[in-house]
TrEMBL record:
The chain crosses the membrane at residues 294-316. Belongs to the alpha-carbonic anhydrase family. Residues 1-16 form the signal peptide. This is Carbonic anhydrase. Its cofactor is Zn(2+). It comes from Python bivittatus. Reversible hydration of carbon dioxide.
Length: 320
């Protein structure tokens, strides 16, 4: 009995060490249990966040993010994989990001989404409590300092991820079909397909100058706190039919396993901000003013009204 127990412990430790421990979003292996097998998931600088715009600090020195090579990702095919948790596209290292504290090279992109039945949510990040139907993550590693993603993902300054909200629009976004058109060939977990290279830039919003920036983590186990996040203000747009394809094409289970389970609702709930600050590259708040500026404007307007009222009152008194 003791031997079996020891063997079992050794096995589960080996699995956790290799990143192979089973995890899901709901149920007994769900996100509330991630910290048991993956202690970093319980730390204090986790992602995603519900970005509270009244707490965001505007930093006018934050430059636009500049992707390099995104329009022409080489001639070799890219690999699209259903890994049971998401659909992931491999990206060549010669796609790079400038405008961050280091130069970062691309590794992969993947998606998070909700379900077509439960229309609430899908994105991981939220803004003032509001979720979008899906979110794209483009994962990069610090190639100035580290050899590859495997080394960089453990380092505090190892990764940079671009977060792009996806919103539903009346027209189709042809760039997304370079991915969505292949989902029916990777229906089950662990299936992959080769995809012809296409302009990855077209998956991003037009405006790369306006974004939120903070230090956080991977949003899936092992939840390493190694990510410098850039979450763009402007969403990318896809059609309702395109969103539905994302929500209905994939299973989180392997081919032949019954019952099969649709791959939906693969988003982590917002984590506590704790001691962190979210910065923005643009003045936040309605009509582009920060909360402080809005209060100042209201006070000035009120004082102005009072002045006009007093002037009118004095004038009326004199003419009487
Ligand atoms: C990443 O780089 C390290 C150090 O150079 C090397 O040992 C390792 O094999 C590389 N891993 C991959 C997946 O290329
Ligand atoms: C992220 O953490 C590093 C190291 O502590 C710090 O220098 C940097 O200012 C932080 N960046 C943001 C956006 O908070």
């Amino acid at each position: 009995m003791l031997l079996v127990l020891t063997l079992w412990q050794a096995l589960s430790q080996a699995l956790a060490a290799s990143g192979g421990s089973h995890w899901t979003y709901e149920g007994s292996y769900g996100q509330a249990h991630w910290p048991e097998k993956y202690p970093d998931c319980g730390r204090q600088a986790q992602s995603p966040l519900d970005i509270q715009t009244d707490l965001v600090r505007y930093d006018p020195s934050l430059p636009p993010v500049e992707p390099e090579g995104y329009r022409n990702p080489g001639s070799g095919s890219l690999t699209l994989t259903n890994n049971g948790h998401t659909v992931q596209l491999s990206l060549p290292e010669d796609l790079r990001l400038h405008g961050l504290p280091s130069i970062y090279s691309a590794a992969q992109l993947h998606f998070h989404w909700g379900s077509s039945k439960d229309r609430a949510g899908g994105s991981e990040h939220r803004v003032d409590g509001l979720a979008f139907p899906a979110e794209l993550h483009v994962v990069h590693f610090n190639s100035e300092k580290y050899a590859n993603l495997s080394v960089a993902k453990h380092q505090p300054d190892g990764l940079a991820v671009l977060g792009i909200f996806l919103e539903v629009d009346s027209v189709e976004n042809p760039a997304y079909n370079h991915i969505l058109d292949h989902l029916d060939r990777i229906t089950y977990a662990e299936q992959e397909v080769a995809v012809a290279p296409f302009s990855v830039r077209e998956l991003l919003p037009a405006h790369l100058g306006h974004y939120y920036r903070y230090n956080g983590s991977l949003t899936t186990p092992p939840c390493y706190q190694s990510v410098l996040w850039t979450v763009f203000r402007q969403p990318a747009r896809i059609s309702a039919a395109q969103l539905e394809k994302l929500q209905k094409s994939l299973y989180s289970t392997k081919d032949g396993k019954t019952p099969s389970e649709l791959l939906v609702g693969n988003f982590r709930v917002p984590q506590f901000l704790n001691q962190r600050v979210v910065f923005s590259s643009f003045p936040v708040g309605p009509s582009g003013y920060s909360a402080g500026e809005i209060i100042a404007i209201i006070i000035v307007v009120l004082l102005g009204c009072l002045g006009v009222f007093l002037a009118g009152w004095i004038l009326a008194k004199r003419t009487r």
